[in-house]
Structure to design on (880 residues):
């Protein structure tokens, strides 16, 4: 293995004869940001779903050099892989803080037995988790909303909450599915600075998005998908210079 | 692994103490339960008619069962239709143990163990099964179960009837009569309320919410969704078994129809009307289920229809309430 | 040998009933994505309406059956208006509970109307029986098998060769896309509810004379139909028929030769085993989120 923090080899996802992901391999180097672009239907979200065990997949997955079983979301999470979704998945029933606490790296004291018979122990670990989660909320700018229901948030704030949940999970690798979708220019700029902070903390990222500037500013390398296959990879400058990418991607509905 | 080191001081939003607001919310509810239970202790002194006392006891023990069902249907979000079967298993096991001279507490333990075991088998068989198939599967389990019970006369007596069960007794004191049984059932209800509140106000409570509403997302967060569903199904079913045993000891008898279809639908009605989340809602809804037919005693023939109509009306008037309770996305067109 | 013949006819008859009931269920599910827990009580209703027509209106059995079928087509349409249409856009489980409530109400009405004592529905052709390999087979079974075969063939024809069938399959595949391409999904759904009611009634009136007509008669059939549908994968008519055959034969043959007392539980055990091993059924074509 190449010392990549995340490596996926030969991933394949099929839905009834359609190959959403057709033998894709990805290497994410430590402390870098890899962009993933491609036209609609190219399999970007399916690839993310494959890497996080959400859809049945064949292939191999390595995190930090160790092989992790595919099709087991809990194991992939335990290896330090955290993701956000295209449509922010937050629970309106819970407070923002509770939402941020859903994906901690340390799950001690979160079971039924602890709830009934081990409350002091549970409280100790919960205290630390709360501190981490509050830090994460502060980082994304939602500290004031900690005790408010997540249902009161705007769309953009929900995205931030999802990001806070991811950060509170102290991830090694962060997979982001179109984090800038639905955000206006100001919000996108805030998000860019935020993700820079995340990168400075040493978290490696795989970033799926459409917005060209967004990709340019953040990504060290970019991978291009088309029809479930990897067609190109390089630095942002190299990718945009490629005529085929320009035509297929920028010629149509580039950016949002 | 990195945590924030260089952030500006975080504004702690209004909490104090270790668990802060969470602890105070739990503490408030526990105190409320304690006060309510203390108040209820006075009920036998009210001089209710024997029918009235009987109904009160029924309300208490059905609330225990309904809370167990809440764990399965409301907290875990699994549509199980075999809860009354678990109650029957508990009842028959307790009767079986009693017939062999076991003490009351031991018989209760046997009831808990057998219904938990049954639930473990069912839950393991349907570990990966989705909602709808789980509903049908548990429906089938109930059917199979009741058929088997009515045929294994070794365990369940001739024609599935067992008579002559002893009075419940704890530490040498026998609970004879509805007034005394009241305290036994009240104690059981108090324990169940506390356990339910402890569940809801704990990290597992928010994990259950996520596991219920967005299971796939919850799994990517590392929440052990299937394990949680399984655990709550087993625990809730065991509580059902316990309630079944309590009823059996109280009535002194158990038959195949002791926990029939009417109760099955009744428990569903109770948990849905109770709001699918709150223990107090369950207790109130059980009161409605137990006391309404008595209040409308002239209309006892029409009771099933009234319950069906109430269920229908509740659904129609509060579909979003139910939906908010069940937290599902709206269906698309058609 | 004789027992084998008798069991074969019993099994075919059972399969026929289950196939009819399960198809009614399936059509409804495909058109409106609703799991109709009242389906069993609609079947029971069919039996009782036929009985009422025959005993109170003194019509011959055939007419009584037809009255029941018509009545239940109407009931299906009424249920669509009352229990389904107002809750169209609500989550699945809300409609599910509404159908459960409707089942409760139906059963209560039947109980008030006809009482709780089990009754006997007359056979279609009294005294009709045929002789197969030396075994006398109750004619009603033959009628049941024959009618079911014809009706199912008819349903298959409707599904694959008529405009309605095409529209139904489009709605089953993707309700939103169907709506967008101009199909009146409401009408498709209403018609499906009517068809479902009719099929339920048919299953009820044909089976009832072979067994006892009681308040839980239809519920038991519905459970068996569930098992058949689950085993068959809940997606296609072919799957349902195969599932019904499996359940019918399993119940009768395995139940006939071994485990006599527990015969009725065998289809459910098979279904549970299947759910444990292949949670989506034998023939599932799509991954349904229910």
């Amino acid at each position: 293995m190449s010392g990549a923090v995340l490596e996926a080899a030969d991933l394949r996802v099929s839905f009834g004869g359609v190959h959403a992901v057709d033998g894709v391999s990805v290497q994410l180097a430590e402390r870098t940001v890899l962009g993933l672009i491609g036209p609609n239907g190219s399999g970007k979200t399916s690839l993310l779903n494959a890497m996080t065990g959400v859809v049945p997949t064949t292939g191999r997955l390595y995190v930090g050099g160790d092989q992790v079983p595919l099709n087991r979301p809990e194991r992939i999470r335990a290896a330090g892989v955290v993701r956000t979704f295209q449509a922010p998945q937050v629970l309106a029933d819970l407070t923002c803080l509770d939402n941020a606490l859903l994906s901690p790296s340390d799950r001690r004291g979160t079971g039924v037995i602890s709830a009934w018979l081990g409350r002091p122990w549970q409280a100790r670990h919960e205290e630390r988790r709360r501190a981490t989660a509050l830090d994460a909320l502060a980082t994304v700018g939602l500290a004031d909303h900690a005790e408010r229901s997540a249902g009161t948030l705007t769309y953009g704030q929900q995205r931030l909450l999802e990001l806070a949940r991811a950060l509170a999970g102290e991830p090694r690798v962060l997979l982001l599915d179109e984090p800038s979708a639905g955000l206006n220019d100001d919000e996108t700029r805030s998000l860019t600075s935020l993700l820079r902070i995340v990168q400075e903390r040493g978290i490696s990222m795989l970033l799926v998005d459409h917005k060209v500037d967004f990709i340019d500013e953040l990504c060290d390398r970019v991978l291009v998908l088309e029809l479930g296959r990897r067609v190109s990879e390089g630095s942002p400058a190299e990718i945009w210079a490629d005529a085929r990418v320009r035509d297929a991607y920028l010629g149509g509905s580039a950016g949002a | 692994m990195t945590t924030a080191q260089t952030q500006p001081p975080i504004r702690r939003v209004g909490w104090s103490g270790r668990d802060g607001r969470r602890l105070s919310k739990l503490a408030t509810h526990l105190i409320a339960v304690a006060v309510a239970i203390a108040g209820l202790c006075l009920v036998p002194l009210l001089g209710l008619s024997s029918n009235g006392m009987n109904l009160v006891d029924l309300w208490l023990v059905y609330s225990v069962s309904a809370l167990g069902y809440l764990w399965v249907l409301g907290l875990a979000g699994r549509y199980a239709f075999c809860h009354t079967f678990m109650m029957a298993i508990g009842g028959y096991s307790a009767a079986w143990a009693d017939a062999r001279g076991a003490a009351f507490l031991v018989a209760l333990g046997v009831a808990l163990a057998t219904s938990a075991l049954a639930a473990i088998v069912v839950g393991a068989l349907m570990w990966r099964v989705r909602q709808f198939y789980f509903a049908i599967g548990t429906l089938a389990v109930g059917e199979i179960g009741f058929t088997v019970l009515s045929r294994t006369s070794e365990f369940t007596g001739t024609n599935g009837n067992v008579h002559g069960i002893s009075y419940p007794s704890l530490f040498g004191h026998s609970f004879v009569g509805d007034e005394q049984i009241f305290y036994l059932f009240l104690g059981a209800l108090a324990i169940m309320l506390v356990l339910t509140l402890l569940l809801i106000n704990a990290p597992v409570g928010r994990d259950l919410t996520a596991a219920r509403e967005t299971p796939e997302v919850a799994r990517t967060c590392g929440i052990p969704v299937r394990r949680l569903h399984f655990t709550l199904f087993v625990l809730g079913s065991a509580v059902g078994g316990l309630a079944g045993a309590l009823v059996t000891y109280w009535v002194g008898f158990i038959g195949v129809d002791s926990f029939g279809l009417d109760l099955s639908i009744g428990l569903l009605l109770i948990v849905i009307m109770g709001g699918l989340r709150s223990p107090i809602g369950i207790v109130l809804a059980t009161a409605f289920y137990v006391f309404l037919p008595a209040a409308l005693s002239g209309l006892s023939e029409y009771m099933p229809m009234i319950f069906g109509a109430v269920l229908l009306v509740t659904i129609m008037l509060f579909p979003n309430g139910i939906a908010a309770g069940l937290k599902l996305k709206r269906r698309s067109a058609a | 040998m004789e027992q084998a013949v008798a069991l074969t006819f019993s099994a075919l008859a059972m399969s026929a009933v289950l196939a009819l009931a399960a198809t009614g269920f399936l059509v409804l599910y495909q058109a409106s994505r609703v799991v109709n827990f009242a389906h069993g009580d609609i079947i029971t209703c069919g039996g009782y309406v036929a009985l009422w027509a025959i005993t109170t209106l003194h019509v011959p059995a055939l007419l009584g059956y037809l009255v029941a079928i018509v009545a239940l087509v109407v009931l299906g349409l009424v249920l669509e208006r009352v229990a389904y249409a107002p809750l169209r856009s609500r989550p699945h489980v809300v409609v599910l509970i509404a159908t459960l409530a409707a089942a409760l109400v139906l059963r209560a009405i039947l109980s008030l109307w006809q009482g709780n004592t089990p009754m006997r529905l007359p056979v279609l052709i009294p005294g009709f029986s045929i002789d197969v390999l030396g075994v006398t087979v109750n004619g009603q079974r033959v009628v049941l098998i024959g009618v079911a075969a014809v009706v199912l063939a008819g349903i298959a024809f409707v599904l694959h060769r008529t405009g309605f069938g095409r529209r139904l399959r489009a709605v089953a595949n993707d309700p939103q896309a169907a709506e967008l391409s101009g199909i009146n999904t409401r009408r498709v759904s209403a018609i499906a509810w009517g068809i479902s009611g009719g099929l339920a009634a048919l299953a009820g009136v044909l089976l009832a004379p072979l067994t006892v007509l009681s308040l839980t008669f239809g519920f038991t059939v519905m459970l068996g139909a569930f098992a058949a549908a689950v085993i068959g994968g809940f997606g296609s008519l072919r799957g349902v028929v195969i599932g019904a055959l499996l359940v019918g034969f399993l119940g009768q043959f395995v139940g006939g030769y071994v485990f006599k007392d527990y015969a009725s539980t065998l289809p459910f055990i098979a279904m549970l085993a299947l759910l444990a091993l292949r949670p989506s059924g034998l023939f599932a074509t799509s991954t349904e989120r229910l």
